[in-house]
Design goal:
Chain A: InterPro entries: CheY-like_superfamily (IPR011006), NreC/VraR/RcsB-like_REC (IPR058245), Sig_transdc_resp-reg_C-effctor (IPR016032), Sig_transdc_resp-reg_receiver (IPR001789), Tscrpt_reg_LuxR_C (IPR000792), WalR-like (IPR039420). The complex is a heterodimer of chains A (214) and B (415). Chain A has ten helices and six strands; from the N terminus they run βαβαβαβαβαβααααα. By secondary structure, chain A is of the alpha/beta class. A six-stranded parallel β-sheet of chain A has the order 2-1-3-4-5-6, sandwiched between helices. Chain B has three domains: 196 residues, no CATH class; 76 residues; 122 residues, Heat Shock Protein 90 (2-Layer Sandwich). In chain B, the strands form two sheets. Chain B has a five-stranded mixed β-sheet, covered by helices on one side. In chain B, strands 1-2 form a two-stranded antiparallel sheet. Classes of the chains: A alpha/beta (214), B alpha+beta (415). The interface between A and B is medium-sized, with 21 and 22 residues.
Chain lengths: 214, 415
Amino acid sequence: MRVVLAEDLFLLRDGLVRLLESYDFEVVAAVDNGPGLLKALLDHRPDVAVVDVRLPPTFTDEGLQAALEARRQVPGLPVLVLSQYVEQLYARELLADGSGGIGYLLKDRVFDPDGFVDAVRRVAAGGTAMDPDVVAKLFAKGAHRDGPLARLTPREREVLSLMAEGRSNAAIAQSLVITERAVIKHTSNIFTKLDLPVSDADNRRVLAVLAYIG
Amino acid sequence: MNTVNIRTGIRSAGRGLPVLGLAIAELVLFCLFVTAVALLGVGLGVLLVPALAVAVRAVVNTSRRTAARWSGVALPEPYLPPPAAEPGLKGQWQRTHWVLTDPATWRDLAWMLVNPVAGVVLALLPFALVVGGLGGVLMPAVYQPIADAGENYYLWVEISDMTSAWYAAALGLITLFAGLAVGPAALRAHAALARTLLAPTAAARRVRHLTDTRSDAVNSSAAELRRIERDLHDGAQARLVALGMNLGVAEQLLAKDPEAVRAILADTRKASAAALTELRDLVRGIHPPVLADRGLADAVRALAMDCPLDVTVQADLPGRAEAPVESAMYFAVAEALTNAAKHASADSVSIDLWYEGGALRGQVIDDGEGGADPSRGTGLRGIERRLAAFDGILAVNSKSGTGTTLTMELPCALS
């Protein structure tokens, strides 16, 4: 799988290259600035891009802007955005075009290589990987209002959080140590209780859930 | 003329008397002070000027208080804050310099010349008219000895018989009423004269405002730095130390007990994630990343999304303000949102940001309980101080039961 990587700090860039290569990814370009990223994305058309939000020259959200621009020119280009902090505002902008292949994770998630690489693969396959922090903030807001979230059982809420992160039924089953059949039962309950359109495509589910709560 | 007016007239006439005593003291001090300044050449002035300045200011402050009582408008002291003077002769010189370079000193001196002349006339005129008038009114009762003494006049009337005495009484009555009538006006005029010379000039008021807000800003930023230092020291720094120690232990155990090393490494990873979380929260409190990335409007939108309440944000900003101004407005809005959620039990909040008349403006309206009082809430005082450092202001409209509207204004230029 071909990856373009954008990270301005040498140590982190180097570490990410090594991590990805140890999981048999091919890093076709590792850049350290925004304009370089856009060029690499358009030249290489990688299977997935791993991008730091803050990049030179402006050290603002250069990486995010380059990724969004590349996706405007190459719709559905899979991008996993990494950041020192996560903001719902940015999550919404990334998800706005509704075409999937989007990830938005805290940099800390790299500490768990298996989980991180799983997220990269999910994004490359057109799925979604939302950081648990983004989802948790969203749920905190949803829970404050006396919405239908209150009607869910605690287990159903756990399943809903994992769905919002973009996990598949199989992954949810594994994470909660229950059978996939049980997950399917929970999800159909959730969709009924929240009156959401039933969908099996993981990123469609994410959009539906996020749109519902936000 | 009704009774109330007569009473205020009499009181006004009497009130002018203390001015006379004050004016004499001022005239004496004026001479002393000028002498002391003249003695600067031979060095003695350095000792005399600061001491006399204390006396001058005490006396002139009495004039200030009197004028304030008459006019109902307080006259704040206009003096520059005293320097941190060293002991000994050098300190004396610093104090002298402070006294002589303060424009308020020279305005005080001008007052000490003007007040004994114009001030005394204005203050004593009603008194003189009333007393003189009374003398005329009493003339018919006491004219006999006066007429016998011969060649005596009341105003322009020669007192010679009963007829002229009544004529004088009529004139006295008019004078008396004139005295009672001009009393309040004369006092007001005197107070106005005092205001012109004794109130702080615009420049002095500005200096005072800047001194206050600067010391507020310095204090709060010092407190901020202390908090950051403590957070780093007890949080991330301590965790990094623990991390290094754990790694050292793991290195030691590697050959002997690989299973224990695995557990230590897992702990270490958790500790590093916790350190990151702490640093992230700290950074958010210093300068929120979205504010740096996108500016005020998006930072406030991000804030609204994280807030548990229903928040709508309207922003109409044609450019970006300087970073410190943006930051001040951001934290003011953040504080207002926290207040709405915490104290007002509001359900929804609307935030407006716009630029008008050379100022960045923000309005936060909640539908909570209302009754917020800036003099009691430390949160509102904090917003006020934050804004004041940039000459900004906060207006609070919070009647009980109607929600709270905070309006904030920061003069600045947009780029």
